[in-house]
Design a protein that fits this description.
It is built from nine helices and seven strands. By secondary structure, it is an alpha/beta fold.
């Protein structure tokens, strides 16, 4: 069981904001950390995760780290390397040095983006990144595995789908993770008593979902929201997807194209 403050990197971002608003209601005390300022978090530490001298002191009194910080979409490799690869290493290493044993790492479905659509996409297959961004998440999952095996840490890697207020595309009817379920997922990972190393998909209980959610359920995550309540309005706006459309055919959707989007 985790005790003490939870350090939340990337706390000013969209998912970080969902967690800042939701986790305290479940009893968690958070310490926000982000290079950008969150106006509604006066106690936030404004600093870069790539700076070990800034990371070290904020680990004091921390019982767990929820690591969201980094570039959240495709970008140039040098930028991905700096923010997502070196930055993630710096967070894990600072946690290790401080004796923080539990980390919840925000991975992504783009770590296996070239996985073809199937009824229940597994978490235990080989990595199939669709972008440099997805590649950085493969690195993060492998780094987590190393820190579990070598240093005895406990890490949950969350292959997050599409975490927004509500789904806005046909693909998101399958991949949506509601803000409430995002909070429930992280809470489950912080409280799971027997966590060693786990990779779990982060989506809600979507009728059209095609990812295996059992690994998350084994940690105590039970999603309650369903994107299907938005299906009529989404389909009225854009219609059904062609089966050959990457958004239908692959886990990573349009990120598998030769010219992946930069959002």
């Amino acid at each position: 069981m985790v005790s003490g403050t939870v350090l939340l990197t990337g706390s000013a971002g969209r998912i970080g904001t969902y967690l800042r608003h939701g986790l305290p209601g479940l009893g968690w005390k958070l310490r926000g950390y982000d290079i950008a300022t969150a106006p509604d978090d006066p106690d936030q530490v404004v600093a870069d995760i790539r700076d070990p001298d800034r990371l070290a002191p904020v680990m004091d009194g921390v019982g767990a780290v929820v690591h969201l910080a980094g570039i959240p979409t495709e970008d140039r490799f040098d930028r991905i390397m700096s923010a997502n690869i070196d930055g993630t290493y710096q967070v894990f290493e600072a946690a290790r040095r401080a004796g923080v044993r539990r980390v919840v790492y925000a991975s992504s479905n783009h770590a296996v983006g070239f996985l073809p659509r199937q009824p229940l996409a597994p978490v235990d297959g080989p990595p199939r990144p669709d972008t440099y961004y997805g590649l950085s998440k493969v690195f993060g999952e492998a780094l987590a595995r190393l820190y579990v095996d070598r240093h005895g840490m406990s890490v949950a890697c969350l292959r997050i789908g599409s975490c927004f207020d509500e789904p806005s595309s046909v693909r998101q009817l399958s991949t949506w993770l509601s803000p409430g379920d995002a909070v429930r997922l992280v809470h489950a990972c912080l409280t799971a008593p027997d966590l060693d190393y786990a990779v779990v998909y982060g989506t809600s209980a979507n009728t059209r979902g095609w990812w295996d959610l059992d690994p998350g359920r084994r940690l105590g995550f039970e999603p309650v929201d369903n994107a299907e309540q938005y299906a009529a309005q989404v389909l009225a706006a854009v219609g059904e997807l062609d089966p050959n459309d990457p958004d239908h055919a692959y886990l990573g959707g349009r990120f598998t194209r030769a010219d992946p989007p930069v959002i």
